């Protein structure tokens, strides 16, 4: 992309903010060029947010139906996989997978719940609950 072609359209950036993009100048040398954004970027980000919200809502519904533990909802909300949560909280991945079932999650002791809460950046009380409404 040439420096003159760098998009300067409205995007998710707040007023006065700019994003740095690399583009070629008139001599062909690459350098950093500020950009206000690009409408295509806005569309893609909106679509990604919709997918994330759908996954979080699906997890919330599973918890409310008693098919999954609240851990599944909070993991989806934070966009974490069982592997990432396991690494962050200090568990094995298979343990996290087991803890996604309501019966096993209900039997976790306070120290394990606290490790999950710390990894997810919430309180233990918040970890053990999900919102009734989206």
Could you characterize what this model shows?
The chain has 134 residues and is mostly helical. The protein folds into two domains: 3-37, no CATH class; 41-127, 434 Repressor (Amino-terminal Domain), CATH 1.10.260. Helix content is 51%, strand content 9%. The chain contains seven helices and two strands; from the N terminus they run ββααααααα. The chain has helices at residues 39-64, 70-77, 82-89, 93-99, 102-106, 110-120, 124-127; strands at 19-24, 30-35. It has a two-stranded antiparallel sheet with strand order 1-2. It is elongated.
Unreliably modeled segments: none
Order of SSEs = EEHHHHHHH
CATH class of the largest domain: Mainly Alpha
Rounded mean pLDDT score: 92
Sheet with the most strands, sense and barrel status: 2 strands, antiparallel
As a percent range, the share of helical residues equals 40-55%
Q: From the alpha-carbon coordinates, what is the Rg to the nearest angstrom?
A: 21 Å
Describe the protein's topology.
Layout: E1 19-24, E2 30-35, H1 39-64, H2 70-77, H3 82-89, H4 93-99, H5 102-106, H6 110-120, H7 124-127
Antiparallel strand pairs: 1-2
Summarize the entry for a quick read:
The protein has 134 residues and is mainly alpha-helical. It contains seven helices and two strands, in the order E-E-H-H-H-H-H-H-H. The protein folds into two domains: 3-37, no CATH class; 41-127, Orthogonal Bundle (434 Repressor (Amino-terminal Domain)).
Characteristics:
51% helix, 2 domains, elongated, two-stranded antiparallel ribbon, 434 Repressor (Amino-terminal Domain), mainly alpha
């Amino acid at each position: 992309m040439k420096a003159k072609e760098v998009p300067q359209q409205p995007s998710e950036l707040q007023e006065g903010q700019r994003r740095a993009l690399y583009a070629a100048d008139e001599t062909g040398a690459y350098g950093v060029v500020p950009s206000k954004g690009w409408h295509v970027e806005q569309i893609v980000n909106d679509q990604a947010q919709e997918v994330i919200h759908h996954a979080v809502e699906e997890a919330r519904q599973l918890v409310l139906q008693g098919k999954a533990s609240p851990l599944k909802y909070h993991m989806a909300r934070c966009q974490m996989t069982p592997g990432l949560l396991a690494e962050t909280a200090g568990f094995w991945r298979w343990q996290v997978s087991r803890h996604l079932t309501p019966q096993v999650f209900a039997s976790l002791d306070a120290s394990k719940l606290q490790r999950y809460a710390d990894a997810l950046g919430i309180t233990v009380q918040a970890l053990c609950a999900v919102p009734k409404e989206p």
